Amino acid sequence: MEIEVKLKLPDSAAHQKVLSLFSPYHAKTHHQRNTFFDGAAGELSSRRTVLRLRFYENSENVKCMVCLKAKAVIIDGVSRVEEDEEEFDSKIGYECVSNPRKLMEVESRVLKRAKEEFDVAEGGFIGLGGFKNVRNVFEWNGVELEVDETIYDFGTCYEIECESTEPEKVKAMIEALLKENDIDYSYSEVSKFATFRAGKLP
């Protein structure tokens, strides 16, 4: 179970303020490309699950992760989602984006689980599309903060995320700093994937 604090920033100006505020704690920046898949007959989505390939496109050595995410719930800015993830060959990953049926042929623990547990039939997987995300990571007060700029075809969203086993404590800590610096925010109500599927900004 992945538990994350998710706070939505209203616009680019607030996003820039947050980046500036946390700049002394900057650890790294990830340029991510996320592509999603379902079974051709909706085998995953019908059970509130999605398959994701995430590419970290920071350099020539592209890293890829395959992930099965299920039953996401967001309440009061805290997200809980079942997640199973493993590293994936990036060259094969790009081939699967071009030809999703290839996902049926690739050796992978997560893909094997997706096929068997969700009874993905002969129709195989279909691509749903995706979006890009620029993620700035900060090591701050003993936690890892992720500040996201998510670029959809229909607009851009800004968000602060922080994975924690003590989400309420971490959320209060982040909120206090944002209020102290007059930075507007709200609790995220939907996941990035849900926003993508809705085709409009929340």
From TrEMBL:
<protein>
    <submittedName>
        <fullName>Triphosphate tunel metalloenzyme 3-like isoform X1</fullName>
    </submittedName>
</protein>
<dbReference type="Pfam" id="PF01928">
    <property type="entry name" value="CYTH"/>
</dbReference>
<feature type="domain" description="CYTH">
    <location>
        <begin position="1"/>
        <end position="200"/>
    </location>
</feature>
<dbReference type="GO" id="GO:0016462">
    <property type="term" value="F:pyrophosphatase activity"/>
</dbReference>
<dbReference type="InterPro" id="IPR033469">
    <property type="entry name" value="CYTH-like_dom_sf"/>
</dbReference>
<dbReference type="InterPro" id="IPR023577">
    <property type="entry name" value="CYTH_domain"/>
</dbReference>
